[in-house]
Amino acid sequence: MILLTGSSGYLGSRIAHALVERGEAFRVLVRNPAKLGLVPAEARCEIAAGDLLDREAVAQSLRGVTQVIHSAALVKMWVRDPQDFRRINVEGLKLLLEEADRAGVERVIYTSSFLAAGPSSDVNAGEGLQNRGPYSNEYEQSKAQALDWLRAEGFKRFPIVALLPGVVYGPGPPTEGNLVGGIMQQYLSGRFPGLLGSGRQSWSFAYIAEVVQAHLAALEKGRLGEEYFLAGDNRSLNDLFAVIGRLTGVSFPVRHISFATGKMYGALEVARARLFNHRPKLTPGAVEIFRKDWVYSSDKACRELGYRVVPLEEGIQKTLEAGRG
Fold first, then answer.
1. DSSP H helices in 163-294
2. DSSP-H helix ranges across 29-137
3. C-alpha distances in angstroms, 221 versus 4, 88, 150, 213?
4. Under a CB-based contact definition with an 8 Å cutoff, are residues 117 and 131 in contact?
5. What letter does residue 30 receive in the DSSP assignment?
6. Which CATH architecture has domain 2-172+204-235+294-312?
7. What is the pTM for the complete model shown?
8. 21: Cβ–Cβ under 8 A, 6 or more apart, which residues?
């Protein structure tokens, strides 16, 4: 039996679908079972209602489980209490691993993030990079802290494999976990407000279907105590818009916004959020992430997990086709 956390999220919901397609018996731990509309009714899926920080609920969800895919995380630009990032993304991981150990779980696949490893302008950068800060926002900090703890202690104590996806994109709703989807939607409708900086900043674009398959492969092939970058096609943000334009015939000009302007706007958005319970469209921390390069090598995952780096053109084309379908 497999336990999946984060099944209502962008990546986790796709992992749930893949488990269904494989005919796997699995259980999901969710705070709100009503959000599981994406899991087909005929799936051999058990539902355990509970919070990741509720030790008793986690322990109950692990009964009879031999493997865990832990994709749950707080993935947001901003929350009112920034300590929530540490509570969920660091302490939640520790609690899950402790209870999994008590339950006799044989393997935990943990979804980390490229942000945990820190910025990189080297397309050959591999596993082992350390994010020493300064951190752009609390989400980046919490993912870096979780990976630091694994390296210092967790890998030695628990049977865990850490996967570090790049900027995950593909078909699906434009949530905060699918930033590229939101950018595409805005651009194609003529509502994209602008790109921060020159656009020469490079990201590692990871197509979601391959990221999902790597999670499943890690259940069988991932070496315990190891990290794997599921990075992707290392391309500039200008390339992203050029590819979208070529494939759609849409040629809206992309406005470039200075980082200083972006940070001022982000600060205003955060102030509005604090005053009016408003979801900020941008934060100063998000601006800092756009300022940096985030590129890496996926060679290790390709060799050991069968991961495939999907060219940006292919991934965007598939995303567009799924949207038209």
1. 179-188, 208-221, 237-248, 259-276, 284-291
2. 55-61, 83-86, 92-103, 114-117
3. 18, 27, 19, 12
4. yes
5. E
6. 3-Layer(aba) Sandwich (3.40)
7. 0.94
8. none
- How far apart CA 99 and CA 160 sit, in angstroms, is 13
Does position 37 have pLDDT exceeding 90, yes or no? no
Q: Bin 278: left if φ > 0, else alpha if -120 < ψ < 50, else beta.
A: beta
Least-confidence region, from 88-97, 145-154, 200-209, 274-283: 274-283
**Domain locations in the chain as residue ranges:** 2-172+204-235+294-312
Rounded Cα distance, 133 and 149, in Å? 15
CA 321, CA 325: separation in Å to the nearest integer? 6
| Structure tokens belonging to residue 206 | 């990871």
Q: Return the pLDDT at 33.
A: 77
How far is 90 from 276, CA to CA, in rounded Å?
29
List CB contacts of 6: < 8 A, sequence separation 6 or more: 12, 15, 70, 71, 72, 73, 111
- Closest by alpha carbon to 217, among 299, 302, 296? 302
Tell me, what DSSP letter sits at residue 35? G
